[in-house]
């Protein structure tokens, strides 16, 4: 496919929405270095640029389990109130600088309790940091709304506790739930009780599926557990042959189930082979509700602007395509309809009109 060109400054200024981004995968390298020194944690290097390169190189293994292992060092600096507050605030400011107007950040509170914080204190602290970041971004003229998804780690036994937290904090900035961690060997249905609880309490949830495992994972996430969105979902293409959709792919497309796709991350974990051939383009063209996401900005060395740039340059995407995935994300965000509608009509569409 021939490459196209959109000026870098235009791409950066385009309004963006990100639904799939992990807090503990998006720290600033310099912040990791500074926080590691305060808690006495040894890093592979204390040079921020070298550390950023180390993360990117370590994650390029083509294996999801090894990709996840890189989080040892980011989690080490997120075990106390000071670290969580700083990282949450910086997270918001980094989104705002990237042109993001709406974001959903996800993390697993159970991974942040080694320093003595309770699960509830972890959530309260992160929400405080996010609020501080949103206030600073608004004051700087780059407002961004950031909401939270709480995760349970699918290979451990605290998913039910994380679901309870999502219910408890749903009026305090938490808008949904997810399960994260190694997908293969840990099917979504293992945690069916947690998902049934969330449905009874009217808390929406997404599920990582179709990344390291195929169609059975996606089927379980949707038809057994009742997910409203799918994290990644790249392997739904296994149910598409010569443009003809199988029953599961048809269900996903026809019911407008959002696919939270993360091109660079998918290359790193081996779920895709190239940006040019990433399933996001074919699925977009087939009418699926695909969304564009970063997954882990530090680990993948990326931003929303970079993800957009790669698709423009290597897959021939246009400004109209970028607008489509941005609107798709807001249509499927876990916030009330009137808030989604206002963001689309008052922020996103005018922002893209100026670039067309």
UniProtKB/TrEMBL annotation:
InterPro entries named among the record's database cross-references: A_deaminase, A_deaminase_dom, Ado/ade_deaminase, Metal_Hydrolase
Transmembrane segments: none
Cofactor: Zn(2+)
Highest taxon in the source lineage: Bacteria
Cofactor note: Binds 1 zinc ion per subunit.
Keywords tagged on the record: Hydrolase, Metal-binding, Nucleotide metabolism, Zinc
MF terms in GO: hydrolase activity
HAMAP family in alphabetical order: A_deaminase (MF_00540)
EC top class, as a word: hydrolase
Annotated Pfam families: A_deaminase (PF00962)
Record-annotated Adenosine deaminase domain positions: 15-347
Biological function: Catalyzes the hydrolytic deamination of adenosine and 2-deoxyadenosine.
Known EC number: 3.5.4.4
Active site annotation, chain numbering: 211
Binding-site list for substrate: 22, 24, 181
NCBIfam families: aden_deam (TIGR01430), PRK09358.1-2 (NF006847)
Protein name per the record: Adenosine deaminase
